[in-house]
Amino acid sequence: MYNFDYEQPGTIADAVAALGAEDAQALGGGQTLIPTMKQRLASPSKLVSLAAIAEMKGVCAEDGAVSIGGGTTHATVAAEAGAHYPALADLASHIGDPAVRNRGTIGGSLANNDPSACYPAAALGSGATIVTNAREIAADDYFQGMFTTALDEGEIVTSVRFPIPQAANYQKFVQPASRFALVGVYVAKYADSVRVAVTGASEEGVFRWSEAEAALSQNFSGDALEGLSVDADGMIGDLHGSKEYRAHLVAVMTKRAVAACG
User: Fold this and answer.
1) Are 157 and 131 in contact (CB under 8 A)?
2) Beta carbons within 10 angstroms of residue 256's beta carbon
3) Which of 103, 125, 101, 121 is CA-nearest to residue 113?
């Protein structure tokens, strides 16, 4: 590691002000940023911890949606969101290991937008709204590519609002060493539409599988997916799985998610 300044504000306003300093970086749970700094892949001169901001923590339900503070840990989402949105709580309960779940936050995950992370699939698959200190961003506009989001410099994810679907399920084919998704598919059925979001598979990061959405909107069953597939071009290919393998897994995990929705 190297020397850097550290600040832990108690309010969103103070955090935004602290992030106005040159080369300052927000610190959520630190599950990505700290290892990145240890490897000297990032070297911010100042870390602004969001851990002490009470207004950014907690889970509540109102007006047909679940709102989760950006500083809420995965473990808290797993423990408290189940009564309102079981699929989201189940997803959170399988992120990483207990150490990661008790430190990592939903806001940090969405701000980082790792191409194999689970929360981006839940947010995009649910048609969530990402709320920041400055505005509200629809999930369809928020995710803009691998490790890229619509966030401006110094902008903080303060909460995420998930519309509650009629049925939903997340299926993750786990990469056993990292616990990230080799391929993960989130399916959510609403009264007037079905959304299917895929993580871990594409070089562009999380994406919606529009062909599957159209088929499932007409017939919400695994049979509707017969003959459908995603193009292997643009899929991630590495030592864990080829492009073709990941493309195949997208269809398999989507069918499993639909079946699990009941």
Assistant:
1) yes
2) 18
3) 121
Q: How far apart are CA 122 and CA 199, in angstroms?
A: 9
pLDDT given at position 32? 86
pLDDT tens string 33-90: 888 888 888 889 899 999 999 999 999 999 999 999 999 999 999 999 999 999 999 9
**What CA–CA distance (Å, rounded) separates 196 from 228?**
13
Copy the structure tokens of residue 20: 């106005």
C-alpha dist (Å) from residue 42 to 27, 50, 51: 13, 18, 20
Q: How far apart are CA 115 and CA 101, in angstroms?
A: 18
| pTM reported for the whole predicted model | 0.95
Q: Please state whether 163 falls in left (phi above 0), alpha (psi between -120 and 50) or beta.
A: beta
Least Cα distance to 32 among 99, 109, 146, 145 occurs for 109
Read off the pLDDT of each residue in 231-240 and give the average, rounded to a whole number.
95
Residues 75/78/80/82 CA torsion (nearest 10 deg): 180
| pLDDT for the residue numbered 1 | 63
Domains and CATH numbers, the chain: 5-49 (3.30.43.10), 55-163 (3.30.465.10), 167-261 (3.30.390.50)
Q: In sequence order, what are the residues at sequence separation of 6 or more whose Cβ sits closer than 8 angstroms to the Cβ of residue 226?
A: none
